[in-house]
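input
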Amino acid sequence: MRDIRELLTGQDAAFDAGTLALYTTDASNYRHAPLGVVRPRTADDVVATVAACREAGAPVIARGGGTSIAGNSCGPGLVLDTSRYFSGVHELDGHLARVAPGTVLDDLQAVAAPHGLRFGPDPSTHSRCTIGGMIGNNACGSHSVAWGRTADNLESMDVLLYDGTRLTVGATSRSEVDSRAALPGTEGRVFRELRDLVDGNLALLRNELSGWGRRVSGYGLEHLLPENGFNVARALVGSEGTCVTVLDATVQLVDLPRHRALAVFGFGTDVEAADAVPAILTRNPLTVEGIDIALPGVTGSDLPDGQAWLLVELAGEDARQRAEELARELRRPHVVVTDPVAQRRLWRIREEGAGLATRMSDGSEGWPGWEDAAVPPDRLGSYLREFKQLLARHGRKTVVYGHFGEGCLHMRIDFDLLTKPGVADFRSFLEDAADLVAAHGGSLSGEHGDGQARSELLPRMYSAEMMALFERFKGIFDPDNRMNPGVLVKPRPVDADIRVRAANVPVVLGYPHDHGSFGEAMRRCVGVGKCRNTGGGGVMCPSYRATREEKHSTRGRAHLLAEMINGELITDGWRSEEVRDALDLCLSCKGCLSDCPVDVDMATYKAEFQHHHYQGRIRPLSHYSMGWLPLWLRFSALAPKFANAVLRRPRVAALVKRLGGIAAERQLPTFADKPYTRSRKRRDGGKPVVLWPDSFNNYLTPQVLHAATEVLEAAGYQVVVPEQNVCCGLTWVSTGQLGMAKRVLRKTLSVLKPYLDAGYEVVGLEPSCTALFRGDLGHLMPGDETAALLARRTRTFAELLADAELPLRDLDIDAITQVHCHQHAELGFGADEKLMARAGIRNSTMDSGCCGLAGNFGFERGHYDVSVAVAEDRMLPAIRDAAAETVVISNGFSCRTQIAQESERTAVHLAELVRAALRPPTKDETP
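output
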């Protein structure tokens, strides 16, 4: 056999350790090192790639968004990733859409929506899952109660067999079946053998393959029955890449409901909620979704009283009336929500369940494995009761949520996958659970497919005769077992190839939320891929949105770090160049800390990695220039006018940038004539508060600190500034110089300790510094009592003024605000919005993501293009669209700098506007 690398010349193919590491797993418990990865751009590329695999004898592993929870998109073959390039809606004709397999579901919905249409199935991963992946798994989603599975919404497909044969398949009349069966070659053989399979087993197929909607396990052979139109396309849906490769699909669209009402009902237990489902289904709802009190993020949300809830969506002009009638019938605590924004808040809890449930409320780890079993809805209550008993017998606990309306429950269970006895019990549990589902007439998989997680268990659900038919069906399309081998037919064991590893890696940071373990922190990312969202709001993940490269997503980086500590593909540990390169475009924005359902904190992991990677080595030049920026700013204050004059000379500026590793496209900042700490006027009286003199505002924009001082004094505070030089160490942290960062912080804590002991609060104006005190300080100084006290006492400017009496006039202005990423992640912005309202500022907080400058990132050589691309994603267009008289607000120095350098606007700090509201404006003063 020829080397597949030679055969794939001309394709976007990769075989390096870093790329292989990115694709070792999906969102499941399983891990397989692939042979290589190809990212096709066209159907011809797919044909050429499969031909190369055929010549080399290599298996083909089809992959879309990589969000499979069953392990059906990772395997020991050549991974065919259609999500990067092979996408797009090619045609929209009435209620039909023709799409490429790599098309993200939300992108299809965006094309269909202006026509009043949508694709019915809508899994919670709709912002990143692909149509090809949905076809592979027979994905369903929350609206399958009304609109069915992917199989029910597929018209036809263009598919490729491993031997190179292309077929167009769909519903087929008997005459057409006979006609195609008479053809020579593979096409004729396929239709002859399919016809013979059906004709010889009609009774078995009709008796064992029920028409119940959530029977996803196994192959969908019922679609080949004469009464179902001998629909080969639908029979291939849910085949998980084990039979064919999808080249093109035509799907059916449904009408968008014009009116919807979401009724939320509270119950004492999830079992009580399950018992109520049959009565609710008589009302013909669009959805009946369940969530449990144990799901992190549920408490504090807009839910009625209860310990478990059902979200019931109804459509039609009388939707609200029908919801109220249902409420009277159920007589349960309830709310009926018709506002789309409020509905989205509630749906977000449900949609992020797969990630949220990975960390249970007590901090323990939850895993997939028994992820989406389903039973007929009228059996759901009894099944759930017995399942809870099964959990108790095995000493396990879970969080329950999911598609109650179709009897499909999602779970994350606290399996012990780190020890041999734990893995043995994992297997025993799955066997017992499979028997329980089969006893209730259910399906091992209700929407995610079988993959490695359930294929071995299928004989517990199906007869030996049906299992033989499944093997025969696969053999018709893939007689050599080269298409995703080990799945569905001749399966790999459910307890083999577990990706979860115990790792004791010496680290510098504390990881207080992961029991001090870097390995446990790496297990946070289970691969649900929310960081691959490119069309919605939030901050995460700016580098992925700019590049669309997996290695520049939070998930990709997490997978690389996990492979680094595993040491199998990436063998040089902290010295890994693959990990270094992937982390290079991480902006350390901390968007993942708030937007990722499991609070992955890539900025912290990057700092840890850089500390070890460069330990005892020469660092990038920018680490010395911008990593030590507080020191250079202090020196500049000795002669700021001279420094500015020198740096305004083009040749000098170019030299400084070159020596400092700074992007040539960037303008160097202008130093203030006098820092705030040397120009402020001290006033006594009032409640003392420490105003944090961060390096950015102190040396570059001291007017911000002066404005805050005036406002705080007007609010009755005595502003205190530390007598000695202090720094939060942020620039050393962001460049991974953690030893120096800790030295700086130890000095700072010693300076602040007397103030903290005296009960002072500390107010910060720069969000990144304030967020470090509130967040990263626990990593940097674990167990330090003064650090913990500082974290508790630190306030934002707006938080401190929340209850203060301020003599504010009504500014009567419009404003838009770019929220600093660290404020979004660690601090929140609600207090700022309330303060603006008090000052008569009609503010619109932009959902504009990261500004792209992100501290040192956007100034570093080689980062300028990505930095601007991030800003152009949402922030800069929104600023350009704002009216000229609209004020642009941003509390972050980086955000204000990016706005000033990349637009024609100047942003102000909130403190400056609030100061303007303290007194009548002068003739020359405008807010």
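quick obs: The chain has a mean pLDDT of 95.
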